[in-house]
Amino acid sequence: MITQETYEALKNARKKLTNWKGDVKPILFKGDAEELYNLLDTTIRQFDGENEMRNVPERIFLNIGEDTPDGADFNELDEVTWSKERASIKDIEYVRKDVLK
Asked: Where are the alpha helices (DSSP H) in the chain?
Protein backbone atom coordinates (compact mmCIF):
# COMPACT_ATOMS: atom_id res chain seq x y z
CA MET A 1 0.00 0.00 0.00
CA ILE A 2 1.24 3.48 -0.79
CA THR A 3 0.42 6.76 0.88
CA GLN A 4 -2.11 9.16 -0.61
CA GLU A 5 0.76 11.61 -1.20
CA THR A 6 2.69 9.07 -3.28
CA TYR A 7 -0.48 8.13 -5.15
CA GLU A 8 -1.10 11.79 -6.09
CA ALA A 9 2.56 12.19 -7.13
CA LEU A 10 2.23 9.19 -9.45
CA LYS A 11 -0.91 10.64 -11.00
CA ASN A 12 0.83 13.99 -11.55
CA ALA A 13 3.88 12.29 -13.08
CA ARG A 14 1.65 10.36 -15.48
CA LYS A 15 -0.12 13.58 -16.47
CA LYS A 16 3.20 15.29 -17.27
CA LEU A 17 4.14 12.52 -19.71
CA THR A 18 1.26 13.36 -22.06
CA ASN A 19 0.47 16.35 -24.23
CA TRP A 20 -2.89 18.12 -24.38
CA LYS A 21 -4.22 15.44 -26.77
CA GLY A 22 -3.31 12.66 -24.36
CA ASP A 23 -0.46 11.36 -26.52
CA VAL A 24 2.77 10.37 -24.80
CA LYS A 25 5.32 13.18 -25.20
CA PRO A 26 8.46 12.29 -27.17
CA ILE A 27 10.79 13.00 -24.26
CA LEU A 28 13.99 11.11 -23.58
CA PHE A 29 13.65 8.18 -25.89
CA LYS A 30 10.04 7.71 -26.89
CA GLY A 31 10.15 4.06 -25.86
CA ASP A 32 11.36 4.99 -22.37
CA ALA A 33 8.63 7.61 -21.97
CA GLU A 34 5.95 5.15 -23.09
CA GLU A 35 7.31 2.47 -20.79
CA LEU A 36 7.30 4.86 -17.83
CA TYR A 37 3.80 6.09 -18.72
CA ASN A 38 2.49 2.51 -18.91
CA LEU A 39 4.10 1.62 -15.59
CA LEU A 40 2.58 4.67 -13.91
CA ASP A 41 -0.79 4.05 -15.54
CA THR A 42 -0.89 0.42 -14.43
CA THR A 43 0.18 1.31 -10.89
CA ILE A 44 -2.40 4.09 -10.60
CA ARG A 45 -5.20 1.88 -11.93
CA GLN A 46 -4.38 -0.71 -9.28
CA PHE A 47 -4.49 1.90 -6.52
CA ASP A 48 -7.59 3.58 -7.95
CA GLY A 49 -9.38 0.31 -7.32
CA GLU A 50 -8.02 0.12 -3.78
CA ASN A 51 -9.05 3.68 -3.01
CA GLU A 52 -12.67 3.16 -4.01
CA MET A 53 -13.75 1.10 -1.02
CA ARG A 54 -17.07 2.23 0.42
CA ASN A 55 -18.59 2.00 3.89
CA VAL A 56 -15.20 1.81 5.57
CA PRO A 57 -15.62 1.94 9.36
CA GLU A 58 -14.17 4.90 11.24
CA ARG A 59 -12.26 2.54 13.50
CA ILE A 60 -10.93 -0.99 13.19
CA PHE A 61 -9.13 -3.20 15.67
CA LEU A 62 -6.09 -5.38 15.21
CA ASN A 63 -6.95 -8.48 17.23
CA ILE A 64 -3.74 -10.03 18.57
CA GLY A 65 -5.31 -12.35 21.12
CA GLU A 66 -5.96 -11.97 24.81
CA ASP A 67 -3.25 -14.49 25.73
CA THR A 68 -0.50 -12.67 23.84
CA PRO A 69 2.21 -11.71 26.35
CA ASP A 70 3.21 -8.06 26.67
CA GLY A 71 6.26 -7.31 24.54
CA ALA A 72 5.62 -10.23 22.18
CA ASP A 73 7.31 -10.14 18.77
CA PHE A 74 4.57 -9.35 16.22
CA ASN A 75 6.33 -11.46 13.58
CA GLU A 76 5.85 -14.54 15.75
CA LEU A 77 2.07 -14.13 16.11
CA ASP A 78 0.10 -16.50 13.90
CA GLU A 79 -3.56 -15.74 14.58
CA VAL A 80 -3.79 -11.99 14.07
CA THR A 81 -7.06 -10.68 12.61
CA TRP A 82 -8.89 -7.40 12.03
CA SER A 83 -12.42 -6.54 13.12
CA LYS A 84 -14.82 -3.62 13.48
CA GLU A 85 -15.36 -4.48 17.14
CA ARG A 86 -12.92 -4.70 20.03
CA ALA A 87 -12.66 -8.36 21.01
CA SER A 88 -10.11 -8.05 23.81
CA ILE A 89 -8.43 -5.47 26.03
CA LYS A 90 -5.21 -6.12 24.08
CA ASP A 91 -6.67 -5.19 20.68
CA ILE A 92 -4.96 -2.28 18.96
CA GLU A 93 -7.30 0.43 17.67
CA TYR A 94 -6.72 2.11 14.30
CA VAL A 95 -8.67 5.23 13.32
CA ARG A 96 -9.11 6.54 9.77
CA LYS A 97 -7.04 9.66 9.13
CA ASP A 98 -10.02 11.70 7.93
CA VAL A 99 -11.88 11.00 11.19
CA LEU A 100 -9.08 12.62 13.20
CA LYS A 101 -9.38 15.95 11.38
From this structure: 4-16, 30-50, 97-100
Q: What's the pLDDT score for residue 67?
A: 86
- Nearest partner of 36 among 51, 15, 22, judged by Cα: 15
Tell whether the torsion through CA atoms of 16, 17, 22 and 25 is positive or negative: positive
SS3 category, 75: helix
If pLDDT is split at 50, 70 and 90, which confidence band does 61 have?
A: very high
- Cβ-contact 68, 89 below 8 angstroms: no
Q: What is the pLDDT of residues 5-39, one digit of tens each?
A: 777 777 777 676 666 676 665 555 555 566 666 77
Is residue 57 pLDDT above 60, yes or no? yes
Q: How many other CB atoms are there within 10 angstroms of residue 34's CB atom?
A: 15
